[in-house]
Amino acid sequence: xxxxxxxxxxxxxxxxxxxxxxxxxxxxxxxxxxxxxxxxxxxxxxxxxxxxxxxxxxxxxxxxxxxxxxxxxxxxxxxxxxxxxxxxxxxxxxxxxxxxxxxxxxxxxxxxxxxxxxxxxxxxxxxxxxxxxxxxxxxxxxxxxxxxxxxxxxxxxxxxxxxxxxxxxx
Length: 170
Known about the structure:
Layout: H1 14-31, E1 33-37, H2 38-54, H3 60-70, H4 73-86, E2 95-102, E3 109-115, H5 120-123, H6 143-169
Antiparallel strand pairs: 1-3, 2-3
Helix pairs in contact: 1-2, 1-4, 3-4
């Protein structure tokens, strides 16, 4: 039965799960994007979004609360410095999970989890649509011009055939 199962335990002990999520959260904060399994990505999203929300208020208390989860000074400085400024206006939904397929070894669902405001490809302005230009057929040349072109090409092609036949006979 599933009674009382509030989150995915990821087949790990409590201490292992906490340290793994802490390390993954620090990596996500420092690198802005990481690749992991889908189950770990979803667990990481539940873990890191409240921490990012706490980073909006840069107080000593909130820094200590976030540090108790992350245990990494560089990621704390990055979170309260650069990231909190970018996400100040966003009401939630700081991460995005993109499914990338299956892992080769064990066929596990893989995904990329990234911070929404740092994806440069999606944030860049959409390229301007190129308007199609209509191309019309070229006006037909007069009959005399086309006939003279046909004569010239037929004469040159006959000469090439003769040259090929002579070279093969030698």
